[in-house]
Specification:
The protein has 132 residues and is mainly α. The protein contains three helices and two strands.
Length: 132
């Protein structure tokens, strides 16, 4: 059974494009996670500082700006929230992209890939049940 070479090339191009989308999304998640970890380190350093009323030097792009520490903490917290939202959105989109890739490759859909983590409240209830 011979296949049309143009069909095979289109199929391979489609699979490669889907795979590139998956890899790009994963890399974007990693990059945002690195930024989120840096923000977390900065917030922790500001919390440990014994002189909370002073100013802190903050790097925005290629500029350093001196800001009050309270304002710096607020900016970092907002940035953390935005990063968390963006990472969660990318992870949700990644699930769809991976399923599309698997579908194009003729593989079955991943099982358990659409699971969501339990909230802290749900974990407390589970622990309470397990304890007795």
């Amino acid at each position: 059974m011979a296949r049309d070479p143009a069909f095979v090339l289109r199929y391979l191009a489609e699979v490669e494009e889907l795979a590139e989308d998956v890899l790009a999304a994963r890399q974007q998640i990693v990059d945002l996670d690195v930024k989120r970890n840096r923000n977390r380190e900065a917030l922790r350093a500001l919390q440990k500082d014994p002189e909370p009323e002073e100013k802190a030097m903050v790097c925005f792009g290629s500029m350093f700006i001196e800001l009050p520490k309270a304002k710096t903490r607020e900016i970092l917290r907002q940035d953390q929230e935005e990063l968390d939202e963006e990472i969660n959105k990318l992870r949700k989109d990644l699930r769809v992209k991976v399923n599309r890739l698997y579908e194009a490759q003729g593989k079955p859909e991943l099982k358990g890939f659409n699971l969501n983590p339990m909230s802290a409240e749900e974990m407390k209830l589970i622990n309470r049940i397990l304890e007795g």
